[in-house]
Amino acid sequence: MTDALPPCPDCGSAFTYEMDALLVCPECGHEWSATAQESDVIRDAVGNVLADGDTVTVIKDLKLRGTSQVVKVGTKVTNIRLVPGDHDIDCKVPGHGQIGLKSQFVKKVTK
């Protein structure tokens, strides 16, 4: 059955396996969606794959356009939603409300 699965897009290993809706590489630990194209995958600043409902931390002070407010480094944002476009994360930031973030300025919080 492993012959029908694609190799890992990160390391090229042929030993990939299915886990629920994801494909997993046992050699490098990379996980990806079996239905999504690699170009459709949204990654955080360090390369972790993001998904709807994830919790992320802001890694850089971000000035909010049109206001004097700043989203401080270390701000934890829960239950993100991925959207197409330049600002690819839609979320509610505590103390600031609903805003769009760029994935390059966040890091996924692992449990």
In short:
By secondary structure, the chain is an all-beta fold. The chain has strands at residues 17-19, 22-24, 31-33, 56-58, 62-63, 70-71, 76-77, 81-82, 89-93, 97-101, 106-108. It has two domains: 1-36, Single Sheet (N-terminal domain of TfIIb); 55-108, SH3 Domains (SH3 type barrels, Roll), CATH 2.30.30.40.
Defining key terms:
N-terminal domain of TfIIb, 11 strands, 3-stranded antiparallel β-sheet, 0% helix, mainly beta, SH3 type barrels, single chain, 111 residues, 2 domains, elongated
Write a structural description.
- InterPro entries: YjdM, YjdM_C, YjdM_N.
- Keywords: Hydrolase.
- This is Phosphonoacetate hydrolase.
- Belongs to the YjdM family.
- Residues 42-109 form the Protein YjdM C-terminal domain.
- With 111 residues, the protein is mainly beta.
- It has two domains: 1-36, N-terminal domain of TfIIb (Single Sheet), CATH 2.20.25; 55-108, SH3 Domains (SH3 type barrels), CATH 2.30.30.40.
- The chain is 0% helix and 30% strand.
- The protein has strands spanning 17-19, 22-24, 31-33, 56-58, 62-63, 70-71, 76-77, 81-82, 89-93, 97-101, 106-108.
- It has a three-stranded antiparallel beta sheet, with no helix packed on it.
- The mean pLDDT is 87.
How many strands? 11
Shape: elongated
CATH topology of the largest domain: SH3 type barrels
Count of domains: 2
User: What number is the mean pLDDT?
Assistant: 87
β-sheet strand percentage: 25-35%
Domain Protein YjdM N-terminal: 5-33
Protein name: Phosphonoacetate hydrolase
Domain Protein YjdM C-terminal: 42-109
InterPro entries: YjdM (IPR004624), YjdM_C (IPR013988), YjdM_N (IPR013987)
